[in-house]
Amino acid sequence: MRLLHTSDWHLGRAFHRVNMLGAQAEFIGHLVTTVRERAVDAVVVSGDVYDRAVPPLAAVELFDDALHRLAGLGVPTVMISGNHDSARRLGVGAGLIDRAGIHLRTDPAAAGTPVLLADAHGDVAFYGLPYLEPALVKDEFAVERAGHEAVLGAAMDRVRADLATRARGTRSVVLAHAFVTGGRASDSERDITVGGVAAVPAGVFDGVDYVALGHLHGCQTLTARVRYSGSPLAYSFSEADHRKSMWLIDLGADGSVTAERLDCPVPRPLARVRGTLENLLADPELSRYEDSWVEATLTDPVRPADPMARLTERFPHALSLVFAPERAPDDPEASYARRLAGRSDQQVAEDFVAHVRGAGPDDRELGVLREAFDAVRADDAVREVAR
Questions:
Q1: Which residue from 261, 256, 258 is spatially nearest to 124, judged by alpha carbons?
Q2: Which of 1, 26, 68, 205 registers the highest number of CB atoms within 10 A of its CB?
Q3: Cα-only R_g, the chain
Q4: 162-187 residues labelled b (16+ CB within 10 A) or e (exposed)
Q5: Which structural domain, as residue segments, surrounds residue 282?
Q6: Same domain, yes or no, for 48 and 74?
């Protein structure tokens, strides 16, 4: 069976101040053409179809168009909700849409109930694991402590239990939206950290033939059977070196996996440039970026006048301006920025406690901080679902 694995469409999202709906529509057209020309048997979409719980009308219309075009090809599509989606909204009408071959899996309780598709070699069971917010699903999965590994492990136990009841030789595909250990993050993914740990080990998916992951925006191979497709478009300058693509997966009669990476259309290349404003305006080596979307990091010790206006004279598609003045190592502002770079909210809070008290938090206080941050994230998740 030939599968096309994609995820993280984020319909309705802008890139800085650029409306991306046209580029997203171009991707949908490319997806439909690929399905037709490469004789795809099933499409899997691993979450974050929309960029937010209540998407703009134009994004809903584009999604509706995508569903109609895929259904018109007669090729089954299986998709799950991600942490940006409203599972309830995305899942409205799922029972009716099933009849058109579009299978929306947004209910965590149905993790062990597969979509069964067949080819000449027998059944392939597709299990959809929507994004599992631990605080919201821990009771459903009867786990003692809310955490990503615990709830995802419990969901996979249901998958393996159901698979054990299937005819011998039934192949299996899992769609999941999670941060799996070994994956590389970018700046455009929403934090899903709980209990100080966001990642789950790839071994949690043992026992199935292919795992189609969503959430991280870079295309990645964690194992031959566990892969991220990444987002089809870049949504932050941290993705400037990404090659945006989808996975074309051939699932053999014995469950073997053969993967081919298919490129997605690029609306405009990204570039990150760094230096003083005068150097950026004069360096001939940077001429190749004059038609790119540009993020410029200025290292001038004093902020120059009208930097963006001057930059756009050379780089008309400059979108982002970052100030990182070069400072002496003993400059207080430089050392503070270095201390904060790459640190989580909890680590920053721990550093603050140590700064004002002279000693860092003890184990009990660490637990209080962790619970406080988890409570804030859980409240955010509940509000997102309720929107």
A1: 256
A2: 205
A3: 23
A4: bbeeeeeebbbbbbbbbbbeebeebe
A5: 270-323
A6: yes
